[in-house]
Amino acid sequence: MTPDTLARAAADKPTPRLNDADTIATEIVEKLTYSIGKTTTAARLHDWLEATTLVVRDRIIDNWFGTTIHTYQQQQKRVCYLSMEFLIGRLLRDAISNLGLTDPIREALARYDVELDLVELLEPDAALGNGGLGRLAACFMESMATTGVPGFGYGIRYVHGFFRQEIVDGQQVELPETWLKHGNPWEFERRESSYEIGFGGKVTTIEEGGRQRQVWRPAERVLAVAYDTPVVGWHGTHVNTLRLWSAQSLDPILLDAFNAGDHIGALLEANKAEAITRVLYPADSHQAGQELRLRQEYFFSSASLQDIIRRHLAQYPDLSNLSDKVAVQLNDTHPAVSVAELMRLLVDVHGIEWDTAWETTRGVFSYTNHTLLPEALETWPIHLFERLLPRQMQIIYAINAGVLREATQGQTFDDETIRGISLIDEGNGRRVRMGQLAFVGSHAVNGVSALHTDLMKVTVFRDLHKLYPTRIENKTNGVTPRRWLFESNPGLTRLAEEAIGRGFKDDITQLSQLDPFAEDAAFRERFAGVKRQNKQRLATLIEERLAISVNPDAIFDIQVKRIHEYKRQLLNILETVALYEQIRSLPHLDWTPRVKIFAGKAAPSYAQAKEIIHLAGDVARVINSDPGVRDLLKVVFIPNYNVSLAEIIMPAADVSEQISTAGLEASGTGNMKFALNGALTIGTLDGANVEMLEHLGEENIFIFGLKADEVAKLRAEGHSGQGVIERQPLLRSAIDSISAGVFSQDDPNRYAGLMGALRDRDWWMIAADFRAYWDTQRQLDMAWRDRARWDAIAVRNTARMGWFSSDRSIREYAHDIWRAGPNA
Ligand SMILES: *Cc1c(COP(=O)(O)O)cnc(C)c1O
Question: Where in the cell is it found (predicted)?
Answer without folding.
Answer: Cytoplasm
